[in-house]
Amino acid sequence: MNDALGIINFEGRNVHIAGMDEFRPVPAISFLGRYRIVDFMVSNMTNSGIENIKVMIKDNPRSLIEHMRTGTQYNINSKRGQMQILYSDTHEDSSIYHHDVNAMLQNMQAFEEASEDYVVIAPSYMIYILDIRKVLAQHVGSGADVTVVYHPTAHLNSYIGCQCVDISDTGRVTGIREIRGQSTANNKVMLECYVLARPLFIKLVQEASALSSLYDFKDYLSAMSDVLNIRGFMYEGYVGCLNSFNAYYRINMEMIDHERAKNLFHSDWPIYTMTNDSAPAFYTKEAHVKNCLIANGCQIQGDLENCILGRGVKIGRGCIIRNALILPKTSIGDFTHIEYAVVDKHVVMEHKKEVIGTVRKIAYIKRRDRC
Amino acid sequence: MRTEMLAMILAGGRGTRLQDLTNKVAKPAVYYGGKYRIIDFPLSNCANSDIHTVGVLTQYESVLLSSYVSHDSTWGLDGRNSGVFVLSPREKDTGFGLYRGTADAITQNIDFIDQYQPEYVLILSGDHIYKMDYAKMLDYHKANKADATIAVLEVPLDEARRFGIMNVDDADRIVEFEEKPANPKSNLASMGIYIFNYKLLRRALLADARKEKSSHDFGKDVIPTMLKANRRLFAYRFHGYWKDVGTIDSLWQANMDLLDPANGLDMTDPSWKIYTEDIPTTPQFIGPRAKIKRALINQGCVVDGTVENSVLFRDVTVKRGAKVNDAVIMPQVVIEEGAEVRNCIVAENMRIPRGAVIGVRDKVTLISRKAQVMKHE
Question: How confident is the model at residue B377 (pLDDT cuts 50, 70, 90)?
């Protein structure tokens, strides 16, 4: 067990998975058919020996609470460890006040009463595999006040609204600045994952709020970058930044390729999720399936290429489905033609026989729709 | 704390005819259906029938089975008044108490049952595949004011001689029980599922334990003695899928049955799920060269070859150009490029080498050792 408290932060206003995040918070959105987005960062934490985890929820808490339960599925010991959902509400009229610092202040008791020396804070919308023990070790060894995890990349346009860090020759973070679409090589994207001592964390949250009612945590870190000893931890592996509907679609689809999916799935690094106790997927004799990612409980009669099927999806006879992401428990009636689409959960598509999006404009069928 | 009905699952059987599959594993822990172990069926049936306390009687190679069933949260049997309790033979002041028969296994655990003061005890077998609502059977038992109720299956008369056969009157009251009769008088086969009034069962078991000539078996001893004493024993007719997989052939066939959507064992029914161990795996990756027809495939599989009429357990890899036909492939098997597997059960963790051709047309082969694979190359 590590001497660190894990905090799954909620995402900032730079993240908007249009359509889908109206129904649930981003961490609870289905990913790769059988996971929720939050599973990856929670698994990083538990695989790194962190057993006391606070999950901050911004709004629509129901689906995330349902999914997280007590956290035993993530390998959290039910007596020594704890998974706690921290819900907060803004009593202000404007959602602009509803940021992470506000939520942390409202739940300060949970952080004050923890016994761990350190906190690890990370949002869940950035999907990657990180051994947090290495970050902690570097943090303790370097004597930094705060260690931030960054990712060198040439593809800044995947990180619009995120921040880059400037790092001096000695490894110190000298500046944190917002990305506005400029794409130069060797940018260092901040993954919003921070390690710091718990008392300092509490102090920074209080200071941030005192300084500006609109500051979120990364704003304050940015403002303090010349006062605090902030150091960078370089993470070079794969990062999927689920900051928009298009990114959500693209990153899901990229993982159909098994070689690429190995970036997220290592044999010694299980990604835990809630079991649904569904039977193995059943392919009938009419099924035609190529290049797909299929979850358990599916019943497939149709013709599928480049698709992801969530748990318990039913695909009727004579369907032709290409480049589509079908979320759990959705049922597609016979002879339906779907291309370039995201069909959300619990949809029953019986009457409409054609949903055609394009590469540029992915169609979206909303949750629980009857069509 | 009182429990209305407690279940005791007999799970000590070896299943010798399952060959290498039961070398180190008792038969109830044998894999079935792409995802399950056989004992998941009676355990899930208990959970779904509102039975909260289950004793599992293990004996033969019990280490894996005992550790498997002791995770009672797998079946949702982890509430405050619930539990799955492993009951293995124990050392007593009279010596080491190996279970001498199905009835003796229960007799030796009367102290366990007494703790719960149950009204009824449900005796089950740990190695049968079926879905059954035991609560309905209990209702039937109560309505008949029965002393014991035995679930029966109507089997073809020519197969009846393989089973324990119940001869009944017009009200389905059992008048005679014949173990594997040469000339069966009825086609009602015992499924090895019994509900007893516990007070009566307790007395019957203690009396049977004192009999030197008894084989201490429910079918051979306890039930016939109760019938002789004119007890009210009723047959409870079960309609649905039920299988006792005793051989490699029948295990293979039972897996193949799942490929027929009308198999009667609707595994997709959300109201009667079969629960099993939750092992973290990825979704299944179906590659660009895959061809899949009539198959049941579990999570974690990576398929880029051909899979037809087959059942694949978790984390099976079927590489490019490999062909799997009419086969049951157990967890973590790797079928290398161009290998062909047909009419086989492949045991877990096997690797079928590149280009190997495994299995014959007319007979189901169990592939469980490296040597077997190599000689076909």
Answer: very low
- Residues 6 or more apart whose Cβ sits within 8 Å of residue A271: A35, A39, A40, A43, A264, A265, B280, B282
Residue range B220-234: average pLDDT?
Answer: 96
Name B89's Cβ contacts closer than 8 Å, sequence gap at least 6.
B59, B96, B97, B98, B99, B108
Contact A68, A83 (CB under 8 A): yes
Are the C-beta atoms of residues B1 and B47 closer than 8 Å to each other? no
Record the tokens describing residue A282, joined without a space: 């059943």
Tell if the CB–CB gap between A256 and B285 is shorter than 8 Å. Answer: yes
C-alpha B168/C-alpha B185 separation (Å) is: 10
The reported pTM is 0.94
Given a cut of 70, whether residue B198 has pLDDT beyond it is yes
Both structure tokens of A173: 């973070």
Chain B residues touching A293 at Cβ < 8 A: 283-286
Cα angle for residues B40, B45, B50 (degrees, 5° grid): 130
Rounded Cα distance between A300 and A320, Å, is: 11
A281 vs B contacts (CB less than 8 Å): 284, 296-298
* Residue contact A283–B295, C-beta within 8 A: yes
Interface predicted TM-score of the whole assembly (ipTM), two decimals: 0.93
Is B47's pLDDT higher than 70?
A: yes
With an 8 Å Cβ cutoff, is B73 touching chain A? yes
Which amino acid is present at B148? A
